[in-house]
Sequence to fold (470 residues):
Amino acid sequence: MKNQKQNKFVTISISIALIINIAWSFYNLNKFDNIKVNFEGEYYNQLLYSDLGPTWIIADRFKKKLDNGESFFSSIPAYERFLLPSILVGYYYHLIDKEIFENKNENKKVIKEKNFKIFLLLFQILIYYSSVLLISNEIFKRFDYQKSKLIILFLCLEPSLLQWHSSFWSESIFLSLMILAFFILLKKSEKAFLNILLGFIVGLMFMQRSVSFLYILPICIYFFLVFKQRLKPLSFLLIGYFFVTALIGYNNFSKTGSLYFVPTHMTYYGYYHYFAHQILADRKNISYPEASEILKNNEMDWRKENNININNTEDLLKNIKYRNKVFAKEIIQNPLYSTQLFIKRSVKTSIIMPLWVNKKYYFDKTDPEAQNNPKEYYNKNLIYNIPYTLFIYLFFAIGFFNLFKKIFINKIKDPTDNFYIFNLISILYFLSIVGFWGNPKYFTPCMISISFFFAEGFFSIRKKYFRSQN
Fold:
C-alpha cells in the first residue's frame, strides 16, 4: 500500500513537471527562436546567443565531419571549450540530416530558426525526469516518507532547477548526470559494475561541464566515510573515471599534439583574465585599466622572451601555466583583498534566480549600456530574487544546524548522515570553484544538494510547530 502511494506521488509529480517543461519549451522556441541584429550589426539567434553560440559552432564542425564520412571518434573535437554538449547537438543534426547554420548578408552565418530544436529539449527533459524517477525509490528507502516527498517535489518543480530543461544551456544534462551519480551513492554498493559506472558518470559530468573536473574528490571522501578501509569500491570508481578522462586526454593529444585534460579556452580565460587586474589594482592602489595594462605588457614581454605563439596548443598551455602562476602570486601578495573579493562574489553566485534563463534572452553584450555600465546592466532585478533566496536558505540553514548538532554535538549518527556530509562537501566544492564568477548560473548544481537539507529543515520546523500546538 505504501509503495502504491509512493508510486502515485512520483508519477503525479513527474507528470506535472513534464507538462510544464514541454509547454515552456514550446513557449521559448516560439518567442525566442528568432534571428536578430545586435548593436554592431551582427546577426544572431536570440535563443542561442552569448556562450551558447560557440557550442553550436563546434557542433556544426563535428556534424560536417560526420556528413563527410569521417568516423565518430575521429570527428570528436578537442576539448577546447565545450565537449559533450557539442557532440549531442552535432550528432542530432547529423542524424536528422538538417543544417544548423544558414547564411545571411555577406555570407555571415547564423543559427537557423525553427530547425527541429524541440526534440533536443524533449530529449533532455526525458533524461532529467528519468533520472528523478530512478532516484525516487532510493530516496524513499533512505529518508522519512514525508521528507522524501518534499525532496522529489523539489527536484521536479523547484523553479531555479526547472528553468534549465527548456533551454539549451548545459545545466539540464549536467543535473541529470549528477542525480544519476547520487542514485548510485545512495545505494552504497560495493559492486564493481555500479562503482565503475559511477566513475564513468562523473567523467561524463566533466565532459558536460569542465567545472566538475575535480568532482571525483568529494566522491572519494564519501567513499572513505562509507567504506572505511575497504579500497575495492574506490578502485572501481577511479577505473571508471580515469577511463573517461584518459579518452579525453588521448583525443586532445590526437587532435592537437599536446596532452591536456581541462579545456584550453576555459583555463586561458579563467581567473587570471577576469580577476588578476582587480587584485593588482588594489595592491598598487591604481585603476583597473592601469592594472590591466601592466599585466598585459608583462605577459607580452614574457611571450617575446619565450617565443610563445598562442595559436599553437603547446604554447597556449605554457601561456595558461604562466597566467595561473601570476594569478596565484597576486593572491599570495594580497590575501585580504582576494578573500574579500571571493566572499563578495560568492554571495552573489549563491543568489537563487528562477528566471535566470529568461533574463538572459534579453541581454546583448554589444548594447552600449552593457559596455558602459555592465554591473547595472547584467544585474537588473537581481534584488527581486533575494526574498526567494532567503526562503530557501532559511530551511537549508535549519536543516544543516539540526544535522550538525545531531552528528557532532549529540554524537548520534544515522545511515544517511554520510550522504548529508557529502552533499555539504559537494556544495563547498562548487562554490570554491565558481565563487569568483559571481554568476548564479554556476550555483545550480548545489540546488540538488540543497534539496536534502531543505526537506530536513522544513519538517523540523513543522514538527516543532505542531508540538507547540499540542
